[in-house]
């Protein structure tokens, strides 16, 4: 080798970057640390034995040095309810990882909480350990809240039974109540329905909660679509409640029914016996109809039926009474149907509308006409004037039909009026309306228009607030200055 070439080669070695020396890797240098997108990964409340949705966090190497031979593991090892997947490798330990200078990687985490027999929610915890060749370690904490539940798969109730509030019920493939059988649901009981599952009643259900211990019927997803939008605030998470043609005498009081394909559907039964009575309850945020009845007799009082993708209330024939109800259609992502639909025919069959009375109600929404439907003036085989009877009194109504003789002592509002529609409700932006916030604003036209007799019959609103005997507010909530 020529002397000149030798000196040139030596100079090149001297110019090689120090980063090529493995001793300068971050993994053997205790002074350098990785950065994480979060120091704690928290899961929403989960039912025991049900796998969670996948959570993730980012691992950043923000230094100018490479990180080699990194080991990532769960502190709890194989006994941990958590599992990790790092750079495509899953389990409880992943070894031999590399993160180049300025690079990053994803760490995915799932959890499956074991049933420990507790009736109250409980916490499980672990940590992800990042261990370097140097012996240095870093941690990301893992936290999840678990709830044990009673799991019902395709359950058929064939003898009288009672559900209580000790544990929530997680229902798959629907819950069926056989003819002649009564299911009693006690205050505070929670029923979580899996996608597509519902409550099918051929017998009878007595779901009677209390003002401070409501019965809840909802979907079973406890996680979130987005960080600020839980699945519990979305519709179409489960089927709903269907009352078969032979089902009578059903009662729903202080029930919170929300997030389904529909709320309560009542098949044709006749009006000699009460199909169902509802009091001080909520039917909210369903993709179809909130309450749908055909040729049945129902009573609904002191209740909120809101944000249905179809109609909040659809009555096809029969007899229906609504008193102190808030019937409001403001679904978040679509206009929905008119809040109320009244008809006396369905698929070519006639069902005389004997009575549909709305008293002390708020009926409003996105539509300029809050009451729609097709009512035939006459039906073969029935006396004239008995097949299309309905009335609205002492109520707030969104409509342009201000001369309708069926309306008595009604306060009218129209689209575009100041303080109309959603503005009737206190601090009720779109997201709030999805959260069932339908308490009255101080300027609502529904204030002070209810009748005295009804206020005596229903002295307290849905929230337990006392109504004055004179000048009570329409709807299910009495205005409170503290709202």
Could you give a quick summary of the protein structure above?
By secondary structure, this protein is mostly beta strands. Helix content is 5%, strand content 41%. Residues 2-23 have low confidence and may be disordered.
What does this structure look like?
- This protein is 5% helix and 41% strand.
- With 483 residues, it is mostly beta strands.
- It has a 17-stranded parallel sheet that branches.
- It is elongated and about 90 Å long.
- The longest helix has 13 residues, at 3-15.
- The N and C termini lie far apart (92 Å).
- Strand 9 and strand 10 form a beta hairpin.
- It has two domains: 25-146, Immunoglobulin-like; 148-457, Pectate Lyase C-like (3 Solenoid), CATH 2.160.20.
- The model is unreliable at 2-23 (pLDDT under 50).
Helix-strand layout with pairing:
Blueprint: H1 3-15, E1 35-36, E2 40-47, E3 55-60, E4 67-74, E5 82-86, E6 89-91, E7 93-99, E8 104-111, E9 122-131, E10 137-147, E11 150-153, E12 156-157, E13 161-163, E14 169-172, E15 175-177, E16 182-185, E17 190-193, E18 199-201, E19 204-208, E20 215-219, E21 224-226, E22 229-230, E23 241-243, E24 250-253, E25 255-258, E26 264-266, E27 276-279, E28 282-286, E29 291-301, E30 304-308, E31 313-323, E32 326-329, E33 340-343, E34 345-346, E35 349-350, E36 353-359, E37 362-365, E38 371-372, E39 391-393, E40 396-398, E41 407-408, E42 411-413, H2 430-434, H3 452-457
Parallel strand pairs: 2-10, 11-14, 12-15, 13-16, 14-17, 15-18, 16-19, 17-20, 18-23, 19-24, 20-25, 23-26, 24-27, 25-28, 26-29, 27-29, 28-30, 29-31, 30-32, 31-33, 31-36, 32-37, 33-38, 36-39, 37-40, 39-41, 40-42
Antiparallel strand pairs: 1-3, 3-8, 4-7, 4-9, 5-6, 5-8, 9-10, 21-22, 34-35
């Amino acid at each position: 080798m020529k002397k000149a070439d030798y000196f040139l080669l030596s100079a090149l070695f001297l110019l090689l970057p120090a980063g090529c020396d493995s001793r300068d890797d971050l993994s053997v240098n205790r002074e350098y640390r990785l950065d994480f997108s979060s120091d704690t990964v928290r899961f929403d409340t989960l039912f025991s034995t049900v796998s969670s949705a996948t959570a993730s966090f980012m691992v950043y190497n923000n230094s100018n040095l490479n990180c080699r031979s990194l080991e990532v593991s769960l502190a709890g090892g194989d006994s941990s309810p958590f599992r990790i997947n790092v750079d495509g490798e899953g389990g409880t330990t992943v070894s031999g990882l590399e993160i180049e200078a300025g690079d990053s990687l994803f760490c995915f985490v799932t959890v499956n909480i074991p049933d420990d027999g507790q009736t109250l929610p409980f916490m499980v915890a672990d940590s992800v350990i990042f261990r370097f060749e140097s012996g240095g370690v870093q941690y990301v904490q893992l936290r999840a809240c678990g709830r044990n539940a009673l799991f019902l798969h395709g359950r058929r109730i064939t003898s009288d039974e009672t559900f209580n509030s000790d544990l929530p019920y997680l229902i798959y493939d629907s819950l069926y109540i056989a003819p002649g059988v009564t299911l009693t649901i006690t205050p505070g009981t929670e029923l979580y329905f899996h996608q597509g599952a519902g409550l099918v009643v051929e017998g009878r259900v007595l779901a009677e909660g209390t003002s401070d211990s409501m019965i809840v019927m909802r979907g079973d997803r406890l996680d979130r679509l987005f960080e600020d939008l839980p699945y519990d605030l979305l519709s179409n998470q489960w089927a709903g409640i269907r009352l078969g043609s032979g089902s009578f005498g059903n009662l729903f009081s202080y029930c919170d029914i929300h997030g389904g394909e529909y709320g309560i559907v009542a098949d044709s039964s006749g009006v000699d016996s009460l199909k169902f009575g509802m009091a001080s309850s909520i039917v909210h945020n369903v993709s179809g109809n909130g309450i749908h009845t055909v040729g049945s007799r129902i009573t609904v009082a002191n209740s909120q039926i809101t944000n249905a993708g179809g109609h909040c209330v659809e009555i096809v024939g029969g007899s229906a009474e609504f008193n102190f109800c808030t019937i409001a259609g403001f679904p978040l992502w679509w206009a929905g149907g008119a809040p109320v639909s009244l008809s006396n025919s369905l698929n070519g069959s006639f069902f005389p509308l004997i009575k549909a009375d709305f008293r002390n109600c708020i009926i409003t929404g996105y539509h300029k006409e809050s009451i729609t439907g097709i009512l035939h003036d006459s039906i073969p085989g029935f006396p004239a004037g008995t097949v299309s009877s309905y009335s609205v009194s002492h109520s707030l109504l969104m409509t342009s039909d201000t001369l309708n003789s069926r309306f008595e002592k009604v306060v009218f509002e129209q689209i575009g009026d100041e303080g109309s529609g959603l503005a009737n409700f206190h601090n009720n932006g779109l997201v709030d309306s999805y959260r069932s916030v339908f308490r009255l604003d101080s300027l609502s036209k529904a204030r002070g228009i209810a009748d005295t007799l009804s206020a005596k019959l229903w002295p307290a609103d849905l929230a337990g607030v006392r109504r004055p005997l004179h000048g009570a507010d329409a709807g299910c909530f009495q205005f409170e200055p503290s709202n």
